[in-house]
Design goal:
Helix content: 25-40%
Number of strands: 8
Largest sheet: 4 strands, antiparallel
Shape: rod-shaped
Strand order of the largest sheet: 1-2-6-4
Strand content: 25-35%
CATH topology of the largest domain: Immunoglobulin-like
Order of helices and strands: HEEEEEEEE
Distance between the termini: 104 Å
CATH class of the largest domain: Mainly Beta
Structural class: alpha+beta
Length: 160
Amino acid sequence: MPVQYEEILKVITTYIIPILSFFFSAIALFQSRKSRKVEEKLKSLELYIKEHQAKKIEDKQNTPNRPNIEAKVYKVSKESYKAKIWNSGNATAYNITASIPEKYSVLLMKNKFPFEYLKPNQSFEEHVIYHMGSSPKFEIETNWEDANGKKYSNTELRSI
């Protein structure tokens, strides 16, 4: 029984090629749906990021443009302490002073006061004398002015 190539070719073109093309188109359809879902998710993430950035810009515009001076005392070595005074606000502070009330028996050296100005996120340090009779908790009062000469103060409770 001789195999005729014409019949095999006819079967291949009639049945196998359409089945293969249907199979490949089904795979392509599945992949396009999958990529469309990924694209939609990407668009929603981009929209979320844009909304978040717009909110951040709006919040920045709505925050008051003013300086804010803060202070803390930290241990440098066994018996040496320093006060770090910094501007955590978003405007320059002028004529900065800091003090610790005498009732706490903690001495803040005043070699650098009044500090002429501190730009946002800038800081400076001053020596602190702490001894056995000093209170472990104490208040630091900072005073400053803004560019218009308006006076501000901040009192913070700190501990060593």
